[in-house]
Design brief:
Length: 349
């Protein structure tokens, strides 16, 4: 497979934009409980979109999946379900912290675990650190952590600078302690997606053998991983629908509002799926040796775009110039980190 680090970083940037943007339509859903619009979003993101795209891009998809081992299926489903639990927590972290801070904290944990654990478990750390390209990539990961730290610091300053009334004007349920707790859990569990994609490599290899373009080969394993993710999300959302008596959200209310809510939730789901569609392509262009760096690039771009959305939604309104400068400094540092990691991958070509 021909590697192209520059193209890989660009694809990750597009995926990061999708991931950093998907929650924006959900902020305009009216009079639906969180669990209701999250489930509709999930139907589009984790079932409909992955299967439609895979059927288009993977020849003989059903045969590819049937010929893949049960062990691979099991691992993909397991990691998908664990990732799904993290995704649930992630949605709550945005609910309690806002798009800017919620993304930064959750994805900070997610980036560290998802980037560093695969090479640690595979025993590749020494070989990675013995090359200039590997050291450059690790330096980029450390730079990425620095950028996340700046965004987190800005969030802590926001907590101290704003009154409770000001916080709730931009994030209705703002709760720093509760938000940090669920964001940390979200980050650790969400990293399981990287493990799921690594476990699904045999499915991608079967897809290539059946004629799929290497660029799209990960779409075959994505459908399995996302089934697991949908199951864990659907169980929790349906439980909340029952507990909160919010099943009525799906069928009651003015027809125009219902249609708008469904369309916004589905749009969010399609945008959400775009992140891993482009992530899967981006990993194929960075090469197998340093494919672990894909995760940190992906996380960095998500935080960049989510913070820009946070600015657009005035989540930092009322904070000091120093706090806002910290946010911009964090965004700039994250952009630099992606350039460093991309250059490290370029050195390995």
């Amino acid at each position: 497979m021909i590697t192209n680090p520059a193209l890989g970083v660009l694809l990750h940037a597009i995926g990061g934009f999708a991931a950093g943007s998907f929650y924006a339509p959900l902020k305009n859903v009216e009079r639906w409980a969180w669990e209701s619009f999250w489930l509709v979003m999930g139907l589009a993101a984790w079932l409909a979109a992955p299967w439609i795209v895979a059927l288009i891009t993977i020849p003989e998809l059903l045969s590819v999946l049937a010929d893949s081992s049960g062990r691979v299926w099991g691992l993909c489903l397991l990691f998908g379900m664990l990732w799904g639990l993290g995704n649930l927590s992630f949605g709550l972290s945005v609910r309690y912290l806002g798009m800017a801070l919620g993304y930064a904290v959750a994805l900070g944990f997610c980036m560290v675990v998802g980037t560093l654990m695969p090479p640690l478990l595979e025993g590749r750390v020494v070989s990675i650190l013995s090359t200039s390209s590997g050291l450059t990539i690790v330096g980029g990961v450390i730079t990425c952590l620095g950028g996340i730290g700046l965004c987190g610091w800005a969030g802590i300053r926001k907590e101290s600078e704003l009154t409770e009334e000001q916080k709730q004007q931009t994030v209705a349920e703002f709760a720093l302690g509760k938000g940090f707790a669920v964001a940390a859990m979200a980050g650790v569990l969400s990293a399981c997606f990287a493990f799921g994609l690594a476990s699904g490599k045999p499915i991608a290899e079967v897809a290539i053998a059946r004629g799929a373009a290497p660029l799209f080969s990960n779409n075959a394993s994505l459908v399995v991983i996302l089934i697991g993710g949908f199951v864990s999300n659907a169980i929790w959302c349906l439980y909340l629908n029952f507990r909160n008596r919010s099943f009525k959200d799906y069928v009651t209310g003015p027809r125009s509002r219902q249609l708008r809510n469904y369309l916004l939730s589905v749009l969010a789901g399609v945008i959400w799926y775009g992140q891993f569609f482009f992530y899967g392509m981006g990993t194929t262009k960075l090469g197998e040796t340093y494919d672990f760096s894909s995760w940190s690039i992906h996380m960095a771009f998500i935080i960049v775009f989510s913070n820009l959305w946070g600015m657009a939604f005035h989540e930092w309104r009322g904070t000091s110039a120093k706090t806002r400068n910290l946010v911009w400094g964090g965004i700039l540092t994250l952009i630099i980190s992606t350039m460093v990691i991309g250059y490290g991958n370029y050195l390995s070509v």
